[in-house]
């Protein structure tokens, strides 16, 4: 692996107004001297005010004016090429995508455009920078635990089969991995894929389960848990995810036997939890931070339902390679992470 001193780099983050992108920008501004270029199309998949809130927080801590935001849609190929030409990024962290497994069943076209066409536009811009003698030194991109489908073998190893996605969202992420590998092999672009496992924490996405559960409990609605609440998820705290990204970007992959400078890692907690147990822990955190009344009984709000199309039964990351290559182990337990989310949620809701 070749090391990169990111303090001397221009780092492009796509999807910077998103959950992970915003958290990464904050980290890099506070812990490095890198110049950060952030792009986002600020679409209305969920409340744009939360995306603006994330950008405002970034601007507030950017006292040295090292952060530049551009509103840009990655589907616009010419705009993407112009951006790369203007800023010539050393590192690209591609996090922009249309998220959500169930939403992909109802809106497939959006996923093809954003997750495949958009991905291609970003990666092809990296290729063009080689022609301009300003090559991107490391390209990182977000994949997903969903690529493993319903593999019966757990925990999931990076080398496990990923040829049977159970949702279009998962299929687009698998496609990105394959397209990425081809570009790493053809053009020598150093490239690392990151398979994220159910990221949670403060300032998260309202469409994600833990946030939706919170909103439903606050409004006095029932929480529907599919597969009778037996689905297991490898919930991974946002700070642990950002720790991993920051370390990974500083080391480029070695060339594999096919000549590709490419690697991929699971980024998870390695501790799957049943959703019914997760909701109980969440409710305790919400009560502790005054989001719910002290005498709230969560069992009265849980409704157990049958499994739905597109959902997998278990996500469970084997993170041994991540530890071996980067010394990374998750630091945050679920109780602590949900308490931090509840504390933020109370403040955000009452601001």
TrEMBL record:
Coiled coil (UniProt feature): none
One Pfam family recorded for the sequence: GDP_Man_Dehyd
InterPro entries: NAD(P)-bd_dom, NAD(P)-bd_dom_sf
Keywords: NAD
Annotated NAD(P)-binding domain residues: 12-340
Endpoints of the signal sequence: none
Superkingdom of origin organism: Bacteria
Name the record gives this protein: Nucleoside-diphosphate-sugar epimerase
Organism: Eubacterium cellulosolvens (strain ATCC 43171 / JCM 9499 / 6)
